[in-house]
Amino acid sequence: MVLRISTDRALPPGPRRPSPAQLHAWITEPERLYASCRRRFGPTFTLRLFGQPPKVFVSDPADVRAVFRGSDEVLHAGRANAVVEPIVGSTSILVLDGSPHRVQRRVLAPLFRGRAVQPALGDLVALCERAVADLPRGEAFALLPHAQALTLRIILAALLGVRQGPELDALYDRTDALMRIAGHPLLLVPPARRRLGSLTPWARFDDHQQALRADLAERFARARVEPDRTDLLARIVHAGGEGGPERDVELADAVLTLLVAGHETSATGLAWAMHHLAHHPGEQERLRADLRAAFGDGPVDVATLAEIPRLTAIIYETLRLTPPLTQVGRILAAPFEVGGYSLPAGVGVVPCIWLAHRDPAQWPEPERFLPERFLPLERPDPSAWFPFGGGARRCLGESFAMHELRAALAVLVLRCRVQPAGAPSRARRRGVVLAPGDGVRLRIAD
User: In the beta sheet, which residues pair with residue 435?
Assistant: First the structure.
């Protein structure tokens, strides 16, 4: 009791509603909750979400910078991500802290830097072309399900080195089933992670996950005797040293982490980008003109896409205004000072992406979609724009995700002229991401 009282006194102010009500608001209306707290309490405030430690939200660039530059021995992101451990495994880079996390990152990081991802992009444009060709013509449709199918096929092809065809289709079906079950809310509740009959969510999830892990173990074994392969799975296997059952568990955790982290967020980002372009036809036409100047009627080249500033600026602005993730978290292992407060151990510190990206001091007219704000193209301030997180926990797949978004967006804009088929989409929570609630209703113009 004494610890609870002293902790409360050390924290910034926040809503007085009961913690279950705050959790409900955070789940159902996070944007309204964040905006209300910012108006009432400023850039630093505390939320008490039922069943979780108090969380101190920060959005001022100086405070965000302090968190991202803080010691990983004090600021534990792995503990903050513990809710996803049943999905990604106990050795996932997402749930590790301190030295174990640094070791994993040293192994994986070189595989995702700059040009290192190029060998994994071989089928990227072809997969995008196929997906765009399959979009409905002459009728309204929701883009998000198509974007989800595309990004899952892309990450499977890049990770596992599987070419288009029956093998990729079979892998897609298996992984898609796993991802759909993984989104069930009961999987996030520890008491519900039991096999209470074969049809319970946990039983179905466990069956699909074990089948995928068995498939991956066979692929690891083949990769160890095929040293010339360039797919990410083979490079992860060879970077990780000797094999064995324990090592296969670690490798499977790494692959599942990349699937989970890279699938839904990329699909959501792509859907939001097309939403903005559909509702801003002038921006869509300017991008189409730049793409035609680069490629004419010929094929899209992945390497050239990075040299088209407007394309990257549109993605940057999409991720600023409608970031798939609204926050990144840390749990304090020791006292930490931020925002003028000395916070005790055990408290969460949460750089709020959504609020930082709407700070009018950093982003004039923050509610408007203005890609021009990023032109001439410069890398944004990492304490004011951080859709991929920051510091030692910045997303390893950022470079791959940017290649993926550029390619998908370029093919869509070159091959289709899209129009909105309804009012602007409103954001709704889908698991950990904030996605368009209607899936982005579009129509392809004749």
Answer: 428
What is the rounded distance in angstroms from the CA atom of residue 112 to the CA atom of residue 195? 37
Cα-atom radius of gyration of the chain, to the nearest Å?
22
Extract the tokens encoding 351: 């750089």
**93-113: pLDDT as tens digits:** 999 999 999 998 988 888 887
What is the C-alpha to C-alpha distance for residues 445 and 137, in angstroms, rounded to an integer? 8
Is the bond leading into 86 cis (omega within 30 degrees of zero)? no
Instruction: Please list, in sequence order, all residues whose beta carbon lies within 8 angstroms of the beta carbon of residue 72, skipping any fewer than 6 positions away.
Output: 97, 98, 101, 102, 392, 393
Chain-centroid distance, C-alpha 386: 11
Each residue of 361-383: b (16+ CB within 10 Å) or e? ebbeebeebbbebbeeeeebebb
Tokens encoding 120? 């994994």
Distance between CA 105 and CA 305 in Å, rounded? 28
Write b or e for each residue in 3-34: b if 16 or more Cβ atoms lie within 10 A of its Cβ, otherwise e: eeeebeebbbebbeeeeeebbebbeeebbebb
Rounded Cα distance between 231 and 4, Å, is 50
CB 256, CB 395: distance < 8 Å:
no
Find tokens 């050795």 and name the residue.
91
- From residue 217, alpha-carbon distances to 73, 175, 195, 253, 333 in Å are 33, 15, 24, 11, 35
Tell me how far apart the 2 most distant CA atoms of the chain are, in Å.
71
Please tell me the pTM assigned to this model: 0.92
Does residue 171 contact residue 162 with C-beta atoms inside 8 Å? yes
Provide the H-helix boundaries in 136-244. 143-160, 166-182, 201-224, 232-239
Domain spanning 2-444, CATH class = mainly alpha
Tell me if 95 sits within 8 A of 78, measured CB to CB: yes
Q: Euclidean distance between the first and final Cα of the chain, in Å?
A: 67
Average pLDDT over residues 274-301: 96
Residue type, 398: E
**Both tokens of residue 336?**
């930490």
Instruction: Kindly state the average pLDDT of the residues 206-213.
Output: 89
> How many other C-beta atoms can be found within 10 angstroms of the C-beta atom of residue 98?
14
pLDDT digits (tens, 9 = 90+) for 370-409: 999 999 998 899 999 999 999 999 998 899 999 999 999 9
Length of the chain (residues): 446
Do 440 and 271 form a contact (C-beta atoms < 8 A)?
yes
